[in-house]
Amino acid sequence: MPIVMKVAGLALDEKSHAPIVVLKDETGNRVLPIVIGLVEASAIAATLEGVEFPRPMTHDLMASLLKQLDATLERIEVTDLLNDTFYATLHIRRKRSAQLITVDARPSDSIALALRTGATILVDEQVFEKVAKTPEGPKASGDDLAGLDDEVFGKYKM
Predict the structure, then answer these.
(1) Residue 9's CB: how many other CB atoms inside 10 A?
(2) Cβ neighbours around 105 below 10 Å, total
(3) Which domains does the chain have, with CATH numbers?
(4) pLDDT tens digits for 10-52?
(5) Taking a C-beta distance cutoff of 8 angstroms, is the pair 123, 32 a contact?
(6) Which of 131, 133, 108 is nearest to 121 (CA)?
(7) In sequence order, what are the residues at sequence separation of 6 or more whose Cβ sits closer than 8 angstroms to the Cβ of residue 18?
(8) Which backbone phi and psi does 108 adopt, to 5 degrees?
(9) pLDDT tens, 112-151?
(10) What is the rounded distance in angstroms from the CA atom of residue 35 to the CA atom of residue 40?
(11) CA distance 8 to 150
């Protein structure tokens, strides 16, 4: 069963200095850190900080296309973890036909788009199970981050 999550913040991996988006469930008991690319981290950070650009960035363009095509992003879902790679899907609803379209996407792009459109962010239960079974675990474990308040993450500046 998918679990509703929110973006708790962005952090940097201490060793690699790779950006990490941190998802937290509504109770704060479950935390999922996902290593992402610098460009996607910039897109997420800009949205979290309310930064608007004079010209649309890629995720703004995607949100605009959805609107122009009379479709809505209902939810994004982090669906799997295979070989240390997270997978996600976009669930897009065409308004006129009510058709639901599912599109394969990277979690980082999905999260950036969800933040721009107000879509729900979900993580499948099996993802948490797989993360728990990973020998090295994520760079920042859910247990290490679960008790932290949102303010601890601070602003992620690019």
Answers:
(1) 23
(2) 18
(3) 3-140 (3.10.690.10)
(4) 999 888 899 999 999 999 889 999 999 999 999 999 999 999 9
(5) yes
(6) 108
(7) 12, 35, 36, 139
(8) -65, -45
(9) 999 999 999 999 999 999 998 876 554 444 444 444 444 4
(10) 10
(11) 6
